[in-house]
Automatic annotation (TrEMBL):
It comes from Agromyces flavus. The chain crosses the membrane at residues 23-42. The keyword Membrane applies. Keywords: Membrane, Transmembrane, Transmembrane helix. The lineage of its organism: Bacteria, Bacillati, Actinomycetota, Actinomycetes, Micrococcales. This is LPXTG-motif cell wall anchor domain-containing protein.
Length: 51
């Protein structure tokens, strides 16, 4: 599920950077991509049993 979200945010960011009028879309896509990535990393670390 997180991989799908990352792909969607990346596509939105790319479309935003390609079309100058949609620069706001690139910014939103970039922020959402980074946020989803951070949340995914935190959740994955929480699942690992302590060593």
């Amino acid at each position: 599920m997180i991989i799908v979200l990352l792909a969607v945010w990346a596509i939105l960011a790319i479309v935003g950077f390609v079309f100058e009028g949609l620069l706001w879309l690139a910014m939103i896509g970039s922020v959402l991509f980074v946020g989803t990535l951070i949340i995914g990393i935190i959740r994955q670390r929480a699942r690992k049993p302590p060593a």
